[in-house]
Write a structure and sequence with these properties.
CATH architecture of the largest domain: Sandwich
Strand content: 35-45%
Structural class: mainly beta
Radius of gyration: 27 Å
Strand order of the largest sheet: 1-4-2-7
Number of helices: 1
């Protein structure tokens, strides 16, 4: 993103604007367009006793760029930032205490934009809001429900716990308003349903139906890794009770099958991080083990058809 020049205004101009937030486009402020075609965004410090130390303004589909301030913006002062094109922008202001004030999806055209930042715009001045997930799948139960902020590294805990969400039933949990969230549900067949980058600024209900099915987005892959490992039971009459797969330089971890059994002629897939060397071991109903050592697994994953010839 092209970095824009900043101009410090000489006079403080009192303004009273209502801040806009959430996922809806903000309303335009007073016109700030100039005859020369430049687009001006004016930020006024209306925080009372707090200096503004950083201002970010970047197109909504781009990451945050550089700080637009060369010096602190004292209470009552303003700064004019010149943009080089009309677009939809996000704006974030940080004060001397590190508190942030944000506006999202601001449509800025040739008339420019003005924002008087006040304490009412404080980002952490949020509230608990209710997220409701409803099963709209008809005949399929939902076994798992996850929700997390869109920038989180993992999905966190299953919101259903030991419960099952039957068709027509719903479950609710609370999140903090004023942030972007991802949600994932998995049904009894292992099919996944995903909604991403949902801005939550009030109570929210997601009716999970087949329009949201996305089996390219595997829960196991999202939580554990990106390389699929498939175990096929070709042991004849013996059922596999346990599957272990762990990095070669690590001890054996949890049983990958959990409460499931892998019967003859069936296969089971789980995910691990690609680019490592792994040891894989299965154990059948008689306690016999079958082990592979030092298997290099890349993004393509690994397929192992376990036969009696693999018996330890």
């Amino acid at each position: 993103m092209k970095k824009l020049h900043m101009l410090l205004a000489l006079l403080a101009i009192p303004m009273l604007l209502t801040a806009c937030g959430g996922g809806e486009p903000a309303e335009d402020g007073n016109d700030r367009g100039n005859d020369d075609g430049t687009i001006e965004v004016v930020i006024v410090n209306g925080l009372g006793d707090w200096d503004i130390e950083e201002i970010l303004i970047d197109q909504s589909d781009s990451p945050w760029g550089e700080n637009r301030l060369d010096d602190v913006l004292e209470p009552g002062d303003e700064i004019t930032i010149v943009l080089d094109e009309e677009n939809t922008y996000d704006i974030m202001v940080t004060d001397e205490d590190g508190d942030t004030y944000s506006m999202w999806l601001v449509d800025i055209d040739e008339d420019g934009y003005e924002w008087e930042v006040t304490l009412d715009d404080l980002d952490w001045a949020t509230e608990d809001v209710t997220v409701t997930i409803e099963n709209g799948l008809g005949s399929w139960d939902i076994w798992y429900v996850y929700g997390c902020t869109s920038d989180a590294d993992d999905w966190g805990d299953d919101q259903l716990g030991s419960e099952i969400l039957a068709p027509g039933e719903s479950t609710s949990f609370t999140v903090q308003s004023g942030d972007w969230y991802d949600f994932l549900a998995e049904d009894e067949d292992g099919d996944t349903y995903v909604i991403l980058d949902e801005y939550i600024d009030g109570d929210f209900t997601w009716v999970v139906d087949f329009d949201y099915m996305d089996n390219t987005f595997r829960l196991d892959a999202a939580v554990e890794g990106d390389a699929p490992v498939t175990i096929y039971n070709d042991l004849g009459d013996w059922t596999i009770w346990y599957i272990y797969c762990d990095a070669t330089d690590a001890p054996w971890g949890d049983d990958r099958l959990g409460s499931e059994l892998l019967h003859p002629g069936e296969e089971f897939t789980f995910y691990v991080p690609a680019g490592n060397s792994y040891d894989i071991q299965v154990e059948d109903e008689d306690g016999d083990t079958y082990t592979l050592w030092g298997v290099d697994i890349d993004e393509a994953g690994y397929y192992w058809e376990v036969t009696l010839s693999d018996l330890d």
